[in-house]
């Protein structure tokens, strides 16, 4: 009993932190660029596919982990510069159509190139096996995923909270003119944020691709979960996204213990309840009086 | 025409019928901030009452509690003998309190006539079968009302123009026309002359005086000349409290007012 | 045909300058409907399969129309229209399978279920605004999806199966009306076309009604509409419920024709594609989204054999957003207003695009 609870907690925190990697990009992109990025799941999937190819061709998980997210970042640059940039200031609805288009396009391209079957990313030898944590034996690779995603989220948190960059980013979210006046190139900040979100998503793709499978449906599957997280946390709030990701991770993994078929019900039920009580999410900006 | 008004019979301009709206101990807090602090005010029926005070004195919050946008934290508001604290904004409009906005706040892609007609329609429409199944243009009364109001504010010439294409002064008049179309008994006007040229200001002052001939008007206004010129009553707010209330000459000679407002860097 | 006359009859003068669809526009629509009525038998004589495609296009056109009424018209972005569509579809599947194939019973039931589901979702969601409203509708629609997918009703009622769970319900028969069966695809096509035309005429009338004017005002300026004396929340819930009824009808038309109801009807991707169809067609025009939906269903079907059809479809969406943001309807309208300026405006759009990218 205790064993399964500890295991579920570990799993919940781990999947929560991975979800936070995806949701963080999504919420930052919304908070700053006002873009609801439906292509974010596709970028995550692209990370997994790039990772699987690199791992297979070069025989190294570590190179895949390093290079694949950067390649996803390059795709992110292309999307931002050539399609989003001309649309800033227009109704955000158009971003939905645009990024939905990219999601479909990327998914189609992936099937076209790599086919519909699932692929694998081999876990590195260093991280195979299990580690005894007293009560439970837990796979080393999962602990690694937990560690690296926590470190990344912590790093982003610090970067946003402490550094100049965070201040600039927050300022441009609220007042692009002010940032302009400071002599900062807003469009570079926007590109940077979008690419940063893409890289995080790509990274999550490689990390999860090596513990689950790599398949064309993974993007559409995760995007909706990430949206739920971002909405529960409050659109645009980084802290909210991290908190909600952990919450969802734990709810899902405990839910699997109790009633596996109803975890999705819990997920959307939770979002509905949060929004009805706090219409702007847990950490969302409340309407000015 | 008055047979269709929900707000009840119209009152004569200067009928000495006491207060149309009164508050008692009205307090509104936003978290730690007290925007209105124990305000007891009486708006006399008929004529023009001006609410003045420095920025942040609570004037707009006072309007917002009158119109139902904010429910009071404490205290009571009575309109025409009935309590209205906590009543929904649309219901308050039906009872006869209507406001116009400082920033133009209309339906910018619709025509001027449709803007006003929509407001007039609220008095006739509900959720009956005819409200869903008939063509809106087959209902004559709202259109006639709207045309009459547009004529009154001098916009009958641009009735079919899109609201967003109107000149600044015309937009502000349209704003007032939308409010008038609800046939208010009490009209709240938030800085009706803000940003206007002297000529437009004069026109607007005339319009306000015309409206006041059959409707009680409350204005928030920074221009002291206008306030002294057109008001029958002045209420002075400062830091959420009602400093004093009286006729222009009474208020002008009040030392506390001069200290708090008139001398202490008021607005032009 | 009745609906055609209804379309033409709407001749109250547009004194307010806000007529939805001018008289020539309505005549054009009527001609289009008559054209479609003629196209059915012709398409069927060439290849029966075409009638099948036409019915699916019409069903989705109706669904897109229902979404446009609430989204393009009342400004409520619903990301959960699949819920009403699916609910209407399952209602039809259950009734036809177990009670009666009478279209006069089943289709109104589908509409009613769509209205009830939408009223419930709307009532719970309308206080949230914008994207939060969208996400609430998404959440409730996904809840319903899970309920159907896991066959929760069967678990609760202790029955063996109600929704058929993962597999859904199949082998559903077609409608009957006064002894006439609609098993023939062409007959079903005419039934669908008649109901779609009737729906369009009805929604145009509704859009021009006093109620329709108010919800248009809600889209334009929600705050102000409250301060001129309208109960905004109630208007929104009613608009959403009406829209849900038409979505339910679309489901009720689609399912018996395909003879399958599966949980995929309620999946969020259906809602998502629907939003895309509406934007692609040109939101707020009522007819544009119908064209958009028909086109997407057509392309999906025709390009489905080509391996890269998703790439083509995705590219189309992206190009439309960047270069024709008002959708197909917007492009057609500007072409009508200024045919000679069309080439110039394309040049202008390209120039703007290059400048924005470089900036």
UniProtKB/TrEMBL annotation, chain A:
One of its GO terms (biological process) is amino acid transport. It is a multi-pass membrane protein. The chain crosses the membrane at residues 12-31, 38-55, 61-82, 94-114, 143-160, 189-210, 222-248, 254-277. Keywords: Amino-acid transport, Cell membrane, Membrane, Transmembrane, Transmembrane helix, Transport. It comes from the Archaea. InterPro entries: ABC_transp_permease (IPR001851), BCAA_transport_permease (IPR052157). Pfam families: BPD_transp_2 (PF02653). The keyword Transmembrane applies. It is found in: Cell membrane. One of its GO terms (cellular component) is plasma membrane. One of its GO terms (molecular function) is transmembrane transporter activity. Belongs to the binding-protein-dependent transport system permease family. LivHM subfamily. This is Inner-membrane translocator.
Automatic annotation (TrEMBL), chain B:
One of its GO terms (molecular function) is ATP hydrolysis activity. It holds the Pfam family BCA_ABC_TP_C. GO terms for biological process: amino acid transport. Belongs to the ABC transporter superfamily. The keyword Nucleotide-binding applies. Keywords: Amino-acid transport, ATP-binding, Nucleotide-binding, Transport. It comes from the Archaea. It comes from Halorubrum saccharovorum DSM 1137. One of its GO terms (cellular component) is plasma membrane. Probable component of a branched-chain amino-acid transport system. SMART domains: AAA. SUPFAM superfamilies: P-loop containing nucleoside triphosphate hydrolases (SSF52540). The lineage of its organism: Archaea, Methanobacteriati, Methanobacteriota, Stenosarchaea group, Halobacteria. InterPro entries: AAA+_ATPase (IPR003593), ABC_AA/LPS_Transport (IPR051120), ABC_transporter-like_ATP-bd (IPR003439), BCA_ABC_TP_C (IPR032823), P-loop_NTPase (IPR027417). Residues 21-264 form the ABC transporter domain. Residues 1-20 are annotated as: Disordered. This is Probable branched-chain amino acid transport ATP-binding protein LivG.
Automatic annotation (TrEMBL), chain C:
GO terms for molecular function: branched-chain amino acid transmembrane transporter activity. It comes from the Archaea. It is a multi-pass membrane protein. InterPro entries: ABC_transp_permease, LivM-like. Pfam families: BPD_transp_2. GO terms for cellular component: plasma membrane. The keyword Cell membrane applies. It is found in: Cell membrane. Keywords: Cell membrane, Membrane, Transmembrane, Transmembrane helix. The chain crosses the membrane at residues 27-46, 58-83, 103-124, 131-150, 186-207, 237-255, 275-299, 311-335. PANTHER family: ABC TRANSPORTER ATP-BINDING PROTEIN (PTHR30482:SF17), HIGH-AFFINITY BRANCHED-CHAIN AMINO ACID TRANSPORT SYSTEM PERMEASE (PTHR30482). This is Inner-membrane translocator. It comes from Halorubrum saccharovorum DSM 1137.
């Amino acid at each position: 009993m205790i064993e399964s609870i500890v295991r579920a907690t570990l799993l919940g925190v781990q999947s929560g932190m991975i979800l936070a990697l995806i949701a963080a990009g999504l919420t930052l992109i919304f908070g700053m660029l006002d873009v609801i990025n439906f292509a974010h799941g596709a970028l995550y999937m692209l990370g997994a596919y790039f990772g699987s190819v690199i791992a297979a061709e070069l025989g190294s998980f570590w190179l895949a982990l390093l290079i694949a997210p950067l390649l996803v970042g390059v795709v992110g640059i292309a999307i931002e510069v050539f399609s989003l940039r001309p649309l800033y200031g227009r109704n955000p609805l158009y971003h939905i159509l645009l990024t939905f288009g990219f999601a479909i396009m990327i998914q189609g391209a992936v099937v076209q190139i790599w086919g519909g079957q699932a692929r694998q990313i081999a876990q590195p030898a260093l991280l195979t096996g299990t580690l005894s944590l007293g009560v439970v034996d837990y796979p080393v690779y999962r602990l690694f995923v937990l560690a690296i995603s926590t470190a990344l989220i912590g790093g982003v948190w610090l970067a946003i909270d402490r550094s100049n960059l965070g201040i600039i980013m927050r300022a441009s979210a609220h007042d692009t003119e002010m940032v302009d006046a400071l002599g900062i190139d807003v469009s570079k900040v926007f590109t940077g944020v979008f690419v940063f979100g893409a890289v995080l998503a790509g990274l999550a793709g490689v990390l999860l691709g090596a513990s689950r499978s790599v398949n064309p449906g993974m993007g559409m599957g995760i995007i909706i979960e990430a949206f739920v997280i971002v909405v529960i946390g409050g659109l645009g709030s980084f802290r909210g996204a991290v908190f909600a990701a952990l919450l969802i991770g734990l709810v899902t993994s405990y839910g699997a213990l109790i009633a596996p078929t109803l975890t999705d019900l819990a997920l959307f039920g939770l979002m509905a309840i949060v929004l009805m009580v706090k219409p702007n999410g847990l950490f969302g900006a409340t309407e000015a009086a | 025409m008055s047979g269709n008004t929900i707000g009840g019979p119209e009152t004569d301009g200067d009928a000495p019928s006491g207060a149309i709206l009164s508050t008692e101990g009205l307090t509104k807090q936003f978290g730690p901030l007290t925007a209105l602090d124990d305000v007891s005010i009486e708006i006399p029926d008929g004529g023009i009452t001006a609410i003045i005070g420095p920025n942040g004195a609570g004037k707009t919050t006072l309007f917002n509690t009158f119109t139902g946008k904010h429910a009071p934290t404490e205290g009571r508001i009575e309109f025409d003998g009935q309590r209205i604290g906590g009543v929904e904004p649309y219901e308050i409009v039906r009872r006869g309190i209507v406001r116009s906005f400082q920033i133009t706040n209309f339906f910018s892609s619709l025509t001027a006539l449709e803007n006003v007609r929509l407001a007039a329609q609220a008095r006739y429409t509900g959720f009956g079968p005819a409200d869903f199944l008939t063509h809106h243009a087959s209902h004559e009364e709202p259109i006639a009302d709207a045309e009459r109001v547009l004529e009154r504010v001098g916009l009958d010439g641009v009735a079919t123009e899109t609201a967003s294409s109107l000149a600044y002064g015309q937009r502000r008049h349209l704003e007032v026309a939308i409010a008038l179309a609800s046939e208010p008994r009490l009209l709240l006007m938030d800085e009706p002359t803000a940003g206007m040229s002297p000529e437009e200001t004069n026109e607007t002052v005339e319009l306000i005086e015309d409206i006041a001939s059959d409707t009680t008007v409350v204005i928030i206004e920074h221009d002291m000349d206008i306030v002294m010129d057109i008001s029958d009553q002045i209420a002075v707010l400062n830091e959420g409290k009602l400093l004093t209330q009286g006729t222009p000459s009474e208020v002008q000679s009040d030392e506390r007012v001069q200290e708090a407002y008139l001398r202490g860097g008021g607005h032009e | 045909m009745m609906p055609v006359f209804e379309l033409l009859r709407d001749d109250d003068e547009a004194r307010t300058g806000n007529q939805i669809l001018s008289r020539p526009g309505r005549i054009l629509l009527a001609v289009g409907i008559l054209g479609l009525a003629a196209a059915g038998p012709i398409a069927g004589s060439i290849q029966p399969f075409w009638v099948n495609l036409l019915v699916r296009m019409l069903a989705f056109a109706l669904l897109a129309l229902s979404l446009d009424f609430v989204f393009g018209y009342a400004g409520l972005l619903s990301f959960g229209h699949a819920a009403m569509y699916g609910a209407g579809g399952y209602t039809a599947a259950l009734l036809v399978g177990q009670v009666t194939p009478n279209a006069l019973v089943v289709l109104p039931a589908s509409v009613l279920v769509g209205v009830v589901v939408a009223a419930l979702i709307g009532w719970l969601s309308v206080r949230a605004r914008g994207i939060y409203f969208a996400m609430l509708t998404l959440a409730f629609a996904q809840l319903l999806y899970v309920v159907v997918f896991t066959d929760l009703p069967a678990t609760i009622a202790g029955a063996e199966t109600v929704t058929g769970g993962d597999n859904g319900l199949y082998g559903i028969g077609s409608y009957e009306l006064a002894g006439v069966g609609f098993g023939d695809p062409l007959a079903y096509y005419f039934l669908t076309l008649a109901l779609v035309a009737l729906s369009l005429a009805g929604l145009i009338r509704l859009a021009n009604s006093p109620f329709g004017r108010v919800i248009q005002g809600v889209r334009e300026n929600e705050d102000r509409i409250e301060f001129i004396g309208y109960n905004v929340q109630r208007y929104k819930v009613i608009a959403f419920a009406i829209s849900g009824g038409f979505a339910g009808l679309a489901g009720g038309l689609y399912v018996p024709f395909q003879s399958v109801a599966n949980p995929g009807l309620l999946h969020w991707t259906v809602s998502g594609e629907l939003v895309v169809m509406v934007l692609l067609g040109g939101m707020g025009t009522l007819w544009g989204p119908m064209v958009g939906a028909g086109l997407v269903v057509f392309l999906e079907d025709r390009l489905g054999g080509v391996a890269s059809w998703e790439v083509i479809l995705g590219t189309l969406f992206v190009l439309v957003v960047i270069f024709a943001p008002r959708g197909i309807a917007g492009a057609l309208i500007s072409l009508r207003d200024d045919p000679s300026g069309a080439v110039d405006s394309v040049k202008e759009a390209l120039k703007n695009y290059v400048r924005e990218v470089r900036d």
